[in-house]
Specification:
The protein has 473 residues and is mostly helical. Helices cover 66% and strands 1% of the residues. Strand 1 (10-12) and strand 2 form a beta hairpin.
Length: 473
């Protein structure tokens, strides 16, 4: 059944991917009110393609569609007979397909650039087109690898974009038709599950349909809204982690392309330095040829880094845009489950007859939720207390070990100081004794000299002078 705003327009059916014309009189006809259910914000209408199958001779529904109502109750398979369907990875594209696309794009790119080359190989560029040709053709093997990695990443993003388009197309499926019932209860949940199994195989294997199918099948077994809510939250985390991990190889390329540019810079500088020939400064021809080789190596060094940075920049923008689009699609699925699926689930109060109707069931669920929250809080509190106690014990052991280390170092310092002081005093006393001994020996020698002088007589002979300037005789 189409939405009223699509009246008189030609749209593409999300089930068979064919164009169909919406008559003005039938658009929105017969759509029952949603019984006050909330409308998911920012989501495409879930019933945009539900009832268009089988009209105008175009259909992608099963060959023998089951009628709604009583016919469903008598013919839907048992739980064990369904078995689900094989789920494909909704986010990670085939690596070999991306590799093939990247190789073909690389060959096509170099084929386009080949006629743009002008002049001799490794000669200065004569025009902008010739420079672009030389940038990819005449700058060592590094630029070839940078280009190949770039187009390989482009192939990955292209395949991811195709998967994202399929995921968005599945959002238009009428996964919870109101023709069955406005609410999902234990009596009619099997009809909704059978409806999901009857969706087109091309679109039913999507994160949207798979998550709702798993939620309804769990509700069919457990018949508890809380369990379904927990399962949907866990599945949302799984899908988010799967989408985030699908960019691992692309992020590797985003890292490797600039690194290859720096490697090319090192190679170019090495070539420039190695080509310098200053052995004969008088030969100008050799000097000019050497300068030409140096400038060629420097050009290679700078051009490889330039190409790596430019390719990384061109790769970063579409990767982030696609990542944002996939995150928005996951948010739309979460919003649909929270605003459409969960409000329509009716588990009958989970034992409401024993405590008095829906109010009692709600109270029991509330008590269970509070008890579960309190249990989790006490568990976390016990774990935190254990960690605090363990940290306290570790702190005491570290303080004791530190005190023992301080005492040992202090004892060693005191012992070293005592030994140094004793050695210094001993040396001083030894030097003092030797000095006194030398002094006593000197005094004894002086006494001996004085004694010898006392036993001798000294004669003094006076010489008379004849005049002031006369010599003494």
């Amino acid at each position: 059944m189409a939405e009223p705003e699509l009246a008189g327009k030609i749209v593409r059916c999300p089930g068979c991917n064919n164009k169909v014309s919406i008559p003005a009189a039938e658009a929105g006809a017969g759509l029952p009110p949603p019984s006050g259910l909330p409308t998911p914000s920012g989501l495409p209408p879930p019933s945009a393609a539900g009832d268009n199958w089988g009209r105008d001779g175009e259909t992608s529904a099963p060959e023998e569609p089951m009628a709604l109502g009583v016919a469903h109750e008598s013919s839907h398979p048992s739980r064990s007979a369904r078995g689900g369907w094989e789920e494909k990875d909704p986010a990670n594209p085939n690596a070999f397909s991306a590799l093939l696309i990247g190789g073909l794009l690389t060959l096509a790119w170099y084929a386009v650039l080949f006629p743009l080359g002008q002049g001799k190989y490794n000669a200065p560029s004569v025009s902008a087109l010739d420079y672009i040709h030389d940038l990819f053709y005449e700058r060592t093997w590094v630029n070839y690898m940078e280009t190949f990695f770039f187009f390989w990443a482009v192939g990955i993003l292209y395949l991811k974009l195709q998967k994202l388009r399929q995921q968005k197309a599945a959002m238009y499926l009428d996964v919870l038709p109101t023709d069955i019932n406005n609410e999902v209860n234990p009596e009619n949940v099997g009809l909704f599950i059978d409806h999901l199994y009857g969706l087109p195989a091309r679109l039913r294997d999507s994160m949207m349909v798979n998550r709702i199918r798993k939620g309804l099948e769990l509700f069919e077994i457990r018949q508890n809204n809380g369990d379904v809510n927990n399962m949907l939250s866990a599945q949302s985390s799984i899908d988010s982690a799967r989408v985030g991990g699908s960019y691992a190889l692309t992020k590797v390329f985003l890292w490797a392309i600039p690194i290859l540019g720096f490697i090319g810079t090192v190679l170019g500088l090495s070539q420039a330095i190695g080509s310098m020939d200053l052995s004969n400064v008088s030969d100008m021809d050799k000097i000019m040829a050497s300068i030409g080789n140096v400038t060629s190596g420097l050009g290679t060094a700078f051009d490889t880094t330039l190409l790596g940075l430019v390719l990384a920049m061109f790769l970063n923008f579409p990767m982030n845009v696609l990542s944002k689009a996939e995150d928005d699609n996951l948010n739309n699925i979460d919003a649909f489950c929270n605003e459409v699926l969960l409000p329509r689930l009716n588990d009958g109060g989970a034992g409401s007859a024993a405590v008095g109707g829906e109010g009692g069931g709600l109270m029991e669920n509330l008590v269970k939720a509070v008890a579960l929250s309190q249990k989790e809080f006490l568990t976390d509190l016990n774990a935190l207390s254990s960690k605090i106690l363990e940290q306290a014990h570790n702190l005491d052991r570290r303080a004791e070990a530190h005190q023992q280390h301080v005492d040992a170092e202090f004892g060693k310092s005191v012992e070293r100081m005592r030994h140094d002081f004793t050695t210094a005093v001993t040396d001083a006393v030894k030097q003092s004794v030797e000095y006194n001994r030398a002094l006593a020996s000197g005094i004894q020698g002086l006494n001996q000299v004085l004694k010898e002088l006392g036993s001798k007589q000294i004669l003094i002979h006076q010489v008379k002078k004849k005049g002031w300037f006369s010599r003494a005789e």
